[in-house]
Amino acid sequence: MTAKVEGLFGIPLWVLEGDLLEGSLEWALDFRDKNPDGVQMTNQGGYHSRDIQDEFPFYDHLKERIQSLPQCKVVSSWININGQGDYNSIHTHPLIDIALVWYLTNNHNTLRLMDPLGGMKHKLLRALDYANMDDTNLVRATAGDMVAFPGFIPHLVEPNKEETERVSIAINLVCP
Fold it and tell me: In sequence order, what are the beta bridge partners of 131?
């Protein structure tokens, strides 16, 4: 497995491509079925589980996959399941060093990361037409991929336009 580090607004974005771990999608859907209440956070519709850290059976897989990231500790994790039309509004992860998303289904190019400087960039820099001067970036991931970025990056998940559910596990990491 390889990890590709890309520059995003001068800030690292890690894309860890990989195959879907057998049984992981079924586990997440079963967890929702057994714990249907969930919590309301940034989710607009859909399902956001409570913290699953004590019940997450895939830590060995996770540790193996994130070896190329800075050495950090998992402090929280949860399941996101968005049906058709469901989405997550713009947010950050305060006091979190790395926000990680493990996709159990394709995300259909719906993770939108925003430049934390936003409109603060001077118009001269825009006039110079530097590469990657966009204020947002859509990230495409397929089932099994992991995407990691600093927790201070504003981000959202666009509405699910598919008839199938979009499933991911979000993990917050704090570095020593």
Answer: none
Residue 81's alpha-carbon distances to 28, 77, 78, 110, 151, in angstroms, are 9, 13, 10, 13, 20
Residues 58-71 have pLDDT tens digits of 999 999 999 999 99
pLDDT tens digits for range 116-139:
876 665 565 556 655 555 667 889
CA distance 53 to 158: 26
What sign does the dihedral 28-33-39-41 (CA atoms) show? Answer: positive
Rounded to the nearest 5°, which phi and psi values hold at 60? -60, -45
How does pLDDT run across 80-120, given as a tens digit for each residue? 999 999 999 999 999 999 999 999 999 999 999 988 876 66
| Pairwise CA distance, residues 166 & 87, whole Å | 10
Q: What is the spatial distance between Cα 47 and Cα 91, in angstroms, rounded to a whole number?
A: 17
